[in-house]
Structures are given as C-alpha cells and as structure tokens.
Specification:
Butyryl-Coa Dehydrogenase, subunit A, domain 1, Butyryl-CoA Dehydrogenase, subunit A, domain 2, alpha+beta, 371 residues, 3 domains, 3-stranded mixed β-sheet, 4-stranded antiparallel β-sheet
C-alpha cells in the first residue's frame, strides 16, 4: 500500500506543471481584466475537471490531486473562480445533488465554460438555524427571497447553488445570476485576491427543476461539502505558508545589517525554523487526510479528521505570514512586497468554513462524546 504522504509520479507531474504554470501567470498584482484570460488557460489545462467523474466529462481524480492544485494556487495567491466553482459548487453537487442535476451542470462546470458559487449560511458553514434565504412553492415552481451579504463571487459566476428554507425543511436550489430579481453588488474587501459580492434575491421565480438536492442527502451532503472544502482551503493555506517562508529566506539572505546578512543571526534562524516546522506539520496533515477522504463515509468522522488539518494549516499560515511581515522589517507591510498580501489572505481564510475554535470544538465533541 502506498504511503499516504508520498506522491505518485502522476501526482508529482501535476504538481510540477501547476507550479511552473502559476509561476508564470500569477495574477495577484495584475489588472482584473486579465483574470478571464487566466481562467481560460486553467480550463484548457483541465483543472476544473479534476474531481468530476469521467462519465460527466471529468478526470475522476481525487482529493489529493485537488489539494496539490490548491496548494500551488495558494502559493501564488491566484485570483480566480476556482475555489468557488470547483471546491464549493462542484463539491456540493457531487455530494448533495441529484443525478439529474449532476448530469445537467457538472459537464459544463468541468469544462470551465461557466462558473458557479455556493451560498450557505454566513461564513460558508452548514448551519440550518443561520440560513437566511427562503424558498416557497409558487404554482409548479418556486419563489426565492433573501440576502447573502458575502458570497465568493468575482462577478463572473453564471449561477449559484443556494441553500434555502422551504415549507418542509431545507433545499438546495439552482439560481441563475441573470435571473430577474437577482442583484449582485461587488464588495470592498480587505483581501483583494478573493473578490466577493453581496447577493440579494427579491421574489426570484424558479422553474420546477430548480431544486437540485437528492432526497435525503441534503444535510449529510452539505456537511460533507463543508468538510471537504475546508480541507482544500487548508491545502491553499499550506501553499501560502510555503510562499511566506520562501520569500522570507530569500529576503533575509539579501538584507545586510551590521555588515552581515540578516539570515546569519541566530534569532532569525530560529524564527525561520519555527515557520518551517509549522508548515511541514500542516502539509503532512493535509495530505494525509486528503489521501483518506474517499474511504471515510461517516460525515462526523470526516469532520474530525479534517479539523486537524484545518486548524494546523490555518494557524501555520497566520504564523508564517505574520513572521514574514516582521522579518521583512520596515517594508513587510508595504504594497511593493507580498507578505502583506499573504497576511490578508491568511486572516480571511481563518474566518471562513468554520474558525479554528469551531473545528477544535468539533474534535472535542467527537472524542469526549459531549453532544
């Protein structure tokens, strides 16, 4: 049996390809009008199809391959709809969607022809009590109303899959971004590499086939979606932490103080070593969990395993970004240097898909049987 922490030749080739491509086309500092061109290139490489089954136009790979791509995207602070469309929307369809909805939407999402996003409770969590959008029967169809104040959407998403309250519980619905009654407003966000919009739904009429969840799969499916998305966010955070370490090592070797490179000082070495230890611990956790998710069918057990990777990666990224700012001295927070971009991305990521304290509480509940 292959060691879960060792990559196959195919996985290494995917990682190398992604690293080379993204190093050339990294776009965190490029104008927003170049984002569409980058997405077309990403689609040509087949990355939106990584986790989609072959019979639906995908490559039928696993969580490890997706995590490798997310790690390299996090390293380069890629600004694209990949996280929203692939990690969120596709995953929700795969685990909570019905067969008809999967056949209808997954092929075009896998091709990259269109992009989508997912709307859950604020903070992208599956918390039924916090769902703010309602959908009621209207003739043969539906009418949806409500607001989602923060949605991962750069304005290019063609559709959203929306978790909404119904008369008899909850449902997952397909909503076109151009449907009458849908209003999208770009938000002024702290992290410019992660565009967001506010969605307002005012009596949006939906056809009878707009409900896409499979009977009996919604709650477990969306809980699994959040866990898997949190794992991929952790992979992205590992990539960001690695970038912080690399740029800090490069800068401290070049920066001279008291006639010596800053990197030669023992205190600086200790801080960089701590960054590396936290990074490698998080990377091992992410890859270990990613290698096992396909064998883990129990949603609670999966959440408990993901919690370890999620907490380690989130803490490592925030620590490494903070240290990168500090060890770059007076320029670490300036626009001309990248540590401030990673610091903002690290802060953003720590608040979405459940905070570290929420994930720790899940582990405690699972292990101590406090529920």
């Amino acid at each position: 049996m292959q060691n879960a922490l060792l990559l196959s030749e195919e996985q290494l080739a995917l990682q190398d390809t992604a690293a080379a491509f993204l190093a050339e086309f990294a776009n965190a500092r490029k104008p927003r009008d170049e984002d569409a061109r980058l997405w077309r290139r990403i689609a040509e490489l087949g990355w939106p199809a990584v986790q989609v089954p072959e019979n639906l136009g995908g490559l039928d790979m696993g969580a490890v391959e997706l995590a490798l791509l997310m790690e390299e995207m996090g390293r380069r602070l890629i600004r694209s709809p990949y996280f929203a469309s692939v990690v969120l929307a596709q995953t929700a369809l795969l685990h909570a969607g019905g067969a008809v909805a999967q056949e209808r939407f997954l092929p075009e999402l896998a091709s990259g022809e269109v992009t989508a996003t997912l709307i859950l409770a604020p903070g992208l969590v599956w918390a039924p009590d916090a769902i703010r959008i309602e959908c009621r029967r209207h003739g043969d169809g539906w009418v949806m109303s409500g607001e989602a104040p923060q949605v991962l959407d750069d304005g290019s998403a063609a559709m959203a899959f929306v978790a909404a309250r119904t008369e008899d519980g909850f449902g997952l619905f397909h909503v076109s971004a151009n449907a009458p009654g849908v209003e999208r407003s770009p938000l002024d966000v702290w992290d410019l590499t992660r565009p967001q919009c506010a969605w307002r739904l005012r009596n949006v009429r939906l056809d009878p086939g707009a409900r896409v969840d499979a009977p009996g799969k919604l709650e477990v499916g969306l809980a699994r979606t959040v866990s898997l998305a949190a794992l991929q966010l952790a992979a992205e955070q590992v990539g960001g932490a690695a970038a912080c370490l690399d740029m800090t090592l490069a800068y401290t070797k070049e920066r001279v103080q008291f006639g010596r490179p800053v990197a030669s000082f023992q205190a600086v070495k200790h801080r960089c070593a701590e960054m590396m230890v936290r990074l490698e611990t998080a990377r091992s956790a992410v890859r270990g969990v990613a290698a096992s998710v396909d064998c883990q069918e129990d949603a609670q057990a999966l959440a408990c395993e993901v919690a370890v990777a999620r907490v380690l990666a989130s803490d490592a990224y925030r620590y490494c970004a903070q240290e990168a700012v500090q060890l770059h001295g007076g320029v670490g927070f300036t626009w001309e240097y990248d540590p401030q971009l990673h610091f903002k991305r690290a802060q953003w990521g720590s608040q979405w898909l459940g905070t570290a304290s929420v994930w720790r509480e899940r582990v405690a509940t699972q292990l101590l049987d406090l529920a």
